[in-house]
Amino acid sequence: MIPFSILDLSPITEGSDAAQSFRNTLDLARHGERWGYQRFWLAEHHGMPGIASAATAVLIGHVAGGTSTIRVGAGGIMLPNHSPLVIAEQFGTLESLFPGRIDLGLGRAPGSDQLTARALRRNLASDADQFPQDVVELMDYFSAEQRHAVRAVPGAGLNVPIWILGSSLFGAQLAADLGLPYAFASHFAPAQMMQALALYRATFRPSTHLEKPYVMLGFNVFAADSEEEAQFLATSMQQAFVSLRSGHPKRLPPPENGYMNRIGPPERTLLDQVLSCSAIGSSDTVKLKLEAFIEQTGADELMITSQIFDHSARLRSYEITAKLRAMLR
Questions:
Q1: Residues 6 or more apart in contact with residue 189 via CB below 8 angstroms
Q2: CA 139 – CA 245 distance, rounded (Å)
Q3: Which of 7, 11, 58, 318 has the fewest CB atoms within 10 Å of its CB?
Q4: Which candidate, 211, 178, 221, 215, places its Cα nearest to that of 193?
Q5: Strands 4-8 and 39-42
Q6: Percent of all residues in the chain with a pLDDT value above 90, rounded to a whole number
Q7: Distance between CA atoms of residues 126 and 117, nearest Å
Q8: Is the pLDDT of residue 247 over 70?
């Protein structure tokens, strides 16, 4: 039975605030743990009005401290924003506090606009090019026999699984070269998914971390007790994405009846493209979509994300999805 996991952006909804988002995040993680989800990941974004997970390591500690068994991690840490040593110390601390439950996914993008990236003290000219070297340096800090004279304390000798995240061929090749598991952001950037998977699997080099390729794919689910309700709930994410791509990010808006009938062809085309790896509907519809996606991709694990305005409706979507996992062929 394929594992399902949860990706939570800790959304800030219109009329709410980050404090409520954090309460909702922990509540979702606790429900996800009871429903059998494998992991609960949070993503680093900065300067985004609708995303509260900027201090990702801090929020991971909050979630891990409020749960018992579910793996908690970053999906991901945008490594060019940070010193590898600092990330090794942060996740070494988390692993020491919650042994055997912490994951570290690493991304190459800034997770922000260029103005915000400068405020993060990034060297925009070279940081992205330095990503492979930074990943290797970070891995060395966790090694029991590290090459660097500087030690990560805590960190050295701890088993913190590292994942490479990506939405292009770059991350696929790096994950294959280093023998690491690969998570593809198909939930919002699916264009190169199949090409990236083929490259990763064809060029994977076994390592002490992983014997064979392991792929986790992002997938949007908007599940409800009726088709009409699911389509309605999905409009919050659709509105947010159009606003983001128009250069006007905002808090997650409430759903709107008839939203897709009011937008123009360019917006429809955008949503059809970026949200193509999605299931919107009742249990039967979502099951068929999940089965088709798994068959198409051969995914080893799915990372489910449900950007739904109402928290109780979001919980219901994840509950329906969890029950479907045992029914998949």
A1: 167, 274
A2: 34
A3: 58
A4: 215
A5: parallel
A6: 86
A7: 13
A8: yes
> Taking the CB of residue 123, how many other CB atoms lie within 10 A of it?
11
Has residue 111 got a pLDDT over 70? no
Let me know: does 84 contact 91? Beta carbons within 8 Å. Answer: no
Q: Are 142 and 103 in contact (CB under 8 A)?
A: no
Return the pLDDT at 36: 98
The pLDDT, as a whole number, for residue 129 is: 75
- The pLDDT tens digits for 64-105 are 999 999 999 999 999 999 999 999 999 999 999 999 999 999
Give the list of residues 6+ apart from residue 192 with CB closer than 8 angstroms, or none.
167, 168, 169
**Residue predicted with more confidence, 114 or 276:** 276
Contact 183, 217 (CB under 8 A): yes
CA-CA distance, 29 to 37, in Å (whole number)?
A: 9
Residue 179 has pLDDT above 80, yes or no: yes
By DSSP bridging, strand 215-223 and strand 162-166 are: unpaired
Q: Are 181 and 216 in contact (CB under 8 A)?
A: yes
| Residue the block writes with tokens 């045992």 | 326
CA angle, 231 then 237 then 243, to 5°? 130
Contact between 8 and 305 under an 8 Å Cβ cutoff? The reply is: yes
C-alpha pair distances (Å), 236 with each of 40, 106, 116, 318:
22, 28, 25, 16
Q: Which of 100, 216, 108, 107 is nearest to 161 (CA)?
A: 100
Q: What is the mean pLDDT of residues 272-290?
A: 96
From CA 305, how far away is CA 286, in angstroms rounded?
13
- Domains contained in the chain, CATH given: 4-325 (3.20.20.30)
3-state secondary structure of 218: strand
Residue 188: burial class (beta carbons within 10 Å; 0-12, 13-18, 19+): middle
